[in-house]
Amino acid sequence: MKFKKKILCIGAGYVGGPSMAMIAHKCPDYRVTVVDINSERIDAWNSPHLPVYEPGLDKIVKQCRGKNLFFSKDIENQIKENDLIFVSVNTPTKTYGAGADMAADLQYLEKTARQILKYSHSSKIVIEKSTLPVKTALTMEKILSSAKGKIKFEVLSNPEFMAEGSAMNDLENPDRVLIGSRETKSGLKARARLVEIYARWVPLKKIITSNIWSSELSKLVANAFLAQRVSSINSISALCEKTDADIVEVAKAVGLDSRIGDKFLRAGVGFGGSCFKKDIFNLVYLCHYYGLREVASYWENIIKINQYQQDRFIANILHAMFGTLAGKKICILGFAFKADTSDTRESPAIYISQKLLTEQAELTISDPRALKNAAIDLAGVKGKITYIDDPYKAAAGCHALLILTDWEMYRTLDYRKLYRSMVKPAFLFDGRNIVDYQKCHAIGFNIYPIGRKALTHF
Ligand code: NAD
Ligand code: UDX
Fold this sequence. Notes:
This protein has 458 residues and is of the alpha/beta class. The chain has 2 domains: 5-202, NAD(P)-binding Rossmann-like Domain (Rossmann fold); 305-448, NAD(P)-binding Rossmann-like Domain (Rossmann fold, 3-Layer(aba) Sandwich). 42% of the residues lie in helices and 14% in strands. It has 17 helices and 14 strands. It has helices at 16-26, 39-45, 57-64, 75-81, 107-119, 136-144, 167-172, 185-198, 212-243, 247-255, 276-289, 293-320, 348-358, 371-377, 391-395, 415-420, 437-443; strands spanning 5-10, 30-35, 69-72, 84-87, 124-128, 153-157, 177-181, 207-211, 329-333, 362-366, 385-387, 400-403, 427-430, 446-448. It has a 6-stranded parallel sheet with strand order 3-2-1-4-5-6, with helices on both faces. The site of uridine-5'-diphosphate-xylopyranose has 19 residues, from α9.
């Protein structure tokens, strides 16, 4: 079959895989190829067990793979063959040298730019899909413009706003698609070519275009605003616990104001995920770089509150359980950073588990999808940890249950059965406010939700 467009994506991760699968699904006449330096990841994309769990992803990959969606290790030839190249490589927080623990580590992006330069024999449009500090396109342009001869590269910014767990729905029905370009003749032409792809399934009014720097910055700002809401509600949950106000009632009353809105107001153990913390640090670093100290400190406080919320949760457990956890068995229900994903990157469960182990608690950890990652995250951590799929088996013989992920299945567990199998007095710390806490109290639990009055039998 002759394909109308040939698209390449460099980086076959949580973003590259699902976003390219969606383009392939919506545009059967385009050939979409995804490459990665990690050959195991490519093997997994070509196997029945995809490396990323997302509801709905399996079906689309199975439909398109081998027809117009390909996962390949041959980066060199794929760069040669394709003229629209998405870059979706990782951009973690730098862990070394200048800007350590704050700036974005752009080494993978730069290596990708150099690969594109090295293997290109024709002009190309290079599309930043990774989340990047504002002005990164300039670096890309500088590297790519060192090409000799007639080859020209146009750099676009097309940040990805999908959230994990709902990625396929977010990709199919995005709130908006953002495309930034240089406002030159060639920049606008490249922009139009990218609009054409999304316009296959996204209404035109939702495809917004801007200058390239606004596009790069908007992604960081969107994540910072979302995280800000979570830290705002979590900070108020601390006040609720002191005053007998109920955070769920407060969030409802506040969120019904249409100017505020009701989303992202669920108090919990803090936000996790690969994006919020790193993107806020990225923003903070940029503000420092431009000498905006007050602005930097404003945004940095979001991270501080997130840390505080996790420390507060641990302090509450220790206080409730008579000041010692040594030798006590604690069951952690949920290790993923949110429901419907196997991803545990920056999950509050990692930090909370480490702290509980330091207190010499013994942990049994259960999660419907994330146990493999949990074992990797806690490898080498001192203490007794057991990983058990079945939540009932995991809870048996424990002194306390901790709900750390808002998996739907945890709402409907048989809490009576769980209670019966536990050591008494039995404690339930609901870090996501998902159980019927009055019912659990009536069953016999001493229950500690977030930002609501604890109900105990003491
Ligand atoms: P990821 O780590 O899952 O995937 C990145 C992939 O890029 C890895 O498989 C890695 O091997 C590959 N890679 C790195 N350098 C390469 C190179 N030179 N050539 C080929 N492949 C290379 O990361 P992710 O979660 O998919 O995130 C990618 C980018 O998208 C990041 O900038 C992230 O901030 C952003 N983002 C992520 C999400 C999310 O929900 N995960 C959402 C929106 C945006
Ligand atoms: C986020 C952004 O939502 C997405 O647009 C961006 O592209 C990538 O980063 P993601 O990290 O996948 O997506 O998940 P998200 O749904 O934003 O949740 C992040 C964290 O905040 C999770 O740990 C979640 O449990 C927590 N959260 C979210 C709350 O604690 N309360 C809320 O009300 C909402």
